[in-house]
Design brief:
Structural class: alpha/beta
Strand content: 15-25%
CATH topology of the largest domain: Rossmann fold
Oligomer: single chain
CATH class of the largest domain: Alpha Beta
Order of helices and strands: EEEHEHHEHHEHHEHEHHHEHHEEH
Number of domains: 2
Shape: elongated
Number of helices: 14
């Protein structure tokens, strides 16, 4: 190709686990003929899908620059990368910013550059290279990891030793950030209480974490309570996803114990409080039982699986609803409610398969709370 030529860059990246073993692929084509000029592919260790996609773009731009390209047309199936590199979306995730800056630096060396989103089926060459890179990294032959287009035409295989089949519905479960009641360790059910300043920072931190794990525009489903909706709004700002409210995700109604500490509730109703801690069918005074919460959360889960089966959603809620979803994923009894701890602004992941199987992938992760003060207070 002559200096000043026009090229098409096709790039892709993937992660088996998100984050997990990742790799990218990039193809540079001569624009007038479509002929392949350069192929690039590499395994990059453990990373997210978005990081791998950006690394694929970076490799493609570098190859185009080495060829002396003047006009570059980038085509990718990552809406996030295309929108961010086009300047329409902000680049908020810390792991993506340095890669994007490097890509922008290379892009300034071309006379013109434009970015276009294309469906996955039209990006099969770069996808194949990315999968081959991940296979090579894992010591597997490429035929064991077909590309996205090929995978879409095949029945989903059994998943590991569980025997689960089909594509699961993936739920990212986010607990809201800190409030004044959580600081004082008071029962906080249906009452409205806003996030503290620290809670807002926690919400932004978990939002940035989630943004690096999902596709732009992924559905966000929130409890109707303000503290959850504030957290969901931070995630929406970071991901561009729509927020919908599910009444069934509201926290337990603690009735007469609302805003009381554990000790105060126990002193007010010593016998009932003791029995309530051991019996999920027993409601708080003028409140509801954990069994009732479990049933309404199950209805929300069933509705999501029916509507987005095989897709991903972010669920922003409270301790009891999130524990209920994890309990469904583990097929566990109600004792889980009393033995599992969930921090503020924590992230958990559960997948529900169409054949009835489920898999809990992550529980109570707070690694995104890098601020020492935020971590110190995350249990409250």
């Amino acid at each position: 190709m002559k200096v000043g030529g026009k090229v098409i860059v096709e790039a892709d990246g993937g992660s088996r686990g998100n984050p997990g073993p990742a790799g990218y692929g990039a193809v540079v084509r001569d624009a007038p003929t479509g002929d392949v000029l350069v192929e690039r592919a590499e395994g990059i260790g453990v990373a997210t899908n978005n990081v791998a996609e950006y690394q694929g773009l970076l490799a493609g731009l570098r190859a185009a620059a080495e060829l002396g390209a003047d006009e570059v047309h980038v085509r990718m199936d990552s809406k996030l990368v295309v929108e961010q590199m086009s300047g329409r979306w902000k680049i908020k995730h810390a792991a993506l910013q340095p890669i994007a800056l490097e890509a922008q630096k290379i892009a300034r060396g071309f006379t013109t550059i434009r970015y276009e989103w294309i469906p996955r089926a039209r990006n099969s060459h770069a996808d194949r290279l990315a999968n081959e890179a991940m296979d090579a990294q894992a010591g597997k032959p490429p035929k064991e990891a077909p590309g996205k287009a090929e995978r879409a035409q095949r029945p989903a295989p059994a998943t590991g030793w569980t025997g689960a089949t089909g594509t699961p519905t993936r739920l990212l479960l986010v607990r809201h950030g800190q409030t004044e009641l959580s600081i004082e360790r008071r029962y906080s059910g249906r009452g409205e209480v806003p996030l503290t300043e620290l809670g807002q920072r926690q919400a932004k931190a978990v939002a940035d974490r989630v943004a690096g794990m999902i596709e732009p525009g992924t559905r966000i489903v929130s409890s109707p309570l303000g503290r959850a909706r504030q957290t969901a709004a931070a995630i929406a700002e970071a991901t561009g996803g729509p927020v919908e409210v599910a009444e069934g995700l509201v926290e337990t109604d603690f009735g007469a114990w609302e805003r009381l500490t554990f000790a105060q509730a126990s002193a007010r109703d010593p016998k009932l409080h003791g029995r309530w801690l051991a019996d999920p069918a027993l409601p708080a005074p003028d409140g509801e039982s954990f069994d009732v919460v479990h049933r309404r959360v199950r209805r929300v889960r069933d509705d999501l699986v029916a509507r987005i089966g095989g897709g991903t959603a972010v669920v922003v809620s409270h301790v009891t609803p999130i524990k209920s979803l994890l309990r469904m994923g583990l097929d566990a009894g109600p004792s889980l409610l009393y033995r599992l701890h969930l921090d503020l602004a924590s992230l958990s992941i559960v997948e529900f398969f169409p054949d009835g199987h489920a898999s809990v992938r992550l529980v109570n992760d707070t690694s995104h709370l890098a601020d020492p003060v935020s971590k110190l207070n995350s249990w409250r």
